[in-house]
Write a structure and sequence with these properties.
By secondary structure, the chain is an alpha/beta fold. It has 12 helices and 12 strands. The strands form 2 sheets. Strands 7-6-5-8-9-12-10-11 form an 8-stranded mixed β-sheet. Helix 6 links the parallel strand 8 and strand 9. Helix 1 packs across helix 2 (72-79), helix 1 packs parallel to helix 5 and helix 10 packs antiparallel against helix 11.
Length: 356
């Protein structure tokens, strides 16, 4: 491999799992003949053309071009903040990765950031570890992430464009894997098996990528969070589908259009107990679940959910605005089981045991 791939993991063929060889601006598999192009130091393992994002593709492309000539921060201030101040805060918030203190991060750690998107978490983690491998499947988002890392001088970031179900890495490549708002979407990439089967296969693959003593960070919604009872739309685009039995939700999403689309219900989330069972069943040895306040994308505080006092204290003293304080005043008196059922989201730390 050339110098551009000397940091981070050894890249492997996603089809057969053997290490790849770099030749003529491409990565080649000597076993199956697979060829994966490399441009601007970024290997591309998924086809061109796919787009998903919080904003239209045309706007994303305009932001990338502005970032190229004038810097990523001015690009966001000019082209994102006026119409989407919420998204601007989400992309630029310096506290989004404060949960990193719960992870085994030091200057020897190799981190995998899955679904890296705008590069927010990648940029916050990179100064605190040996390498971060940022995986993103959308070309425009990868271009922005690449510009952001270059402009911030983050030389230890490996950029990889790939889908999530065919990750091009050898087993035991990472000390930490980060999945923030990812697990609920993976079954949309494989419409064959039931969603929970796709999710379990994916998590087992993540488990194999971790070294002994490594950890997975999972930021994700609670299937029974209080906002969902108040009518907040689920990932399906409809209200209440998360709360319904899965077969019933599947019927609803096939009959009722959301955003002009109908289809099977595949964006599964789980309860506090469901995540613990799911991760333990996929080979993780220790699972700790926290309530991130106010939510997993803005984790100002983490309250452990194995005991009630810390959560009740935080709910009663730091909740805002006014309507949230009123709700927190009630929630502060709830038993721990009810709190686990009603918190909006979870920060989950799942660890792999040390070598025997």
């Amino acid at each position: 491999m050339s110098a551009q791939f000397e940091i981070g993991p050894t890249l492997a063929c996603p089809a057969c799992g053997v290490p790849l060889v770099e030749r003529a601006q491409a990565l080649l598999c000597d076993r199956c003949g697979g060829r994966y192009p490399v441009g601007g130091g970024i290997p591309r393992f998924n086809p061109d053309g796919f787009y998903w994002g919080e904003i239209p593709r045309s706007q994303m492309r305009a932001i990338v071009e502005r970032a190229r000539t004038g810097g990523w921060e001015p690009a966001l201030r000019e082209l994102l903040a006026p119409g989407r101040p919420d998204l601007y805060d989400y992309v630029t918030d310096p506290g989004r990765a404060d949960w990193r203190h719960y992870l085994p991060l030091d200057d020897s750690a190799d981190v995998l950031d899955l679904g890296a998107g705008w590069g927010s978490l990648t940029a916050l983690l990179a100064p605190r570890c040996r390498s971060v491998t940022a995986v993103e499947g959308v070309e425009e988002r990868m271009r922005f992430l690449d510009l952001r890392c270059r402009q911030q001088g983050l030389a230890n970031v490996v950029r990889v464009r790939s889908d999530l179900l065919h990750l091009p890495f050898l087993a035991g490549s990472f000390d930490v894997v980060v999945m923030n708002g990812v697990l609920e979407w993976v079954a949309c990439a494989d419409l064959g098996p039931p969603p929970e089967v796709v999710q379990r296969r994916f998590l087992r693959r993540i488990r194999r990528l971790l070294r002994p003593g490594g950890a997975l960070y999972l930021g994700i919604e609670n299937r029974t969070g209080y906002q969902l009872w108040l009518g907040l739309r689920d990932h399906s685009g409809l209200p209440f589908t998360s709360l319904l039995p899965r077969p019933v939700a599947n019927v609803v999403t096939r009959l009722v259009a959301a955003g002009g689309k109908r289809g099977p219900y595949r964006t599964y989330t789980y309860t506090y107990w469901g995540y613990r069972r799911l991760l333990r069943g996929c080979g993780f040895d220790e699972v700790d679940v926290y309530a991130p306040l106010p939510g997993y994308n803005t984790p100002r505080y983490l309250a452990p959910l194995d005991r009630g006092a810390p959560l009740r204290f935080l709910l009663r003293h730091v909740a805002r605005p006014v309507h949230a304080r009123r709700l927190a005043a009630v929630a502060g008196h709830l038993p721990l089981t009810a709190a686990r059922l009603l918190v909006s989201s979870f920060a989950v730390f799942a660890r792999v045991g040390p070598p025997c």
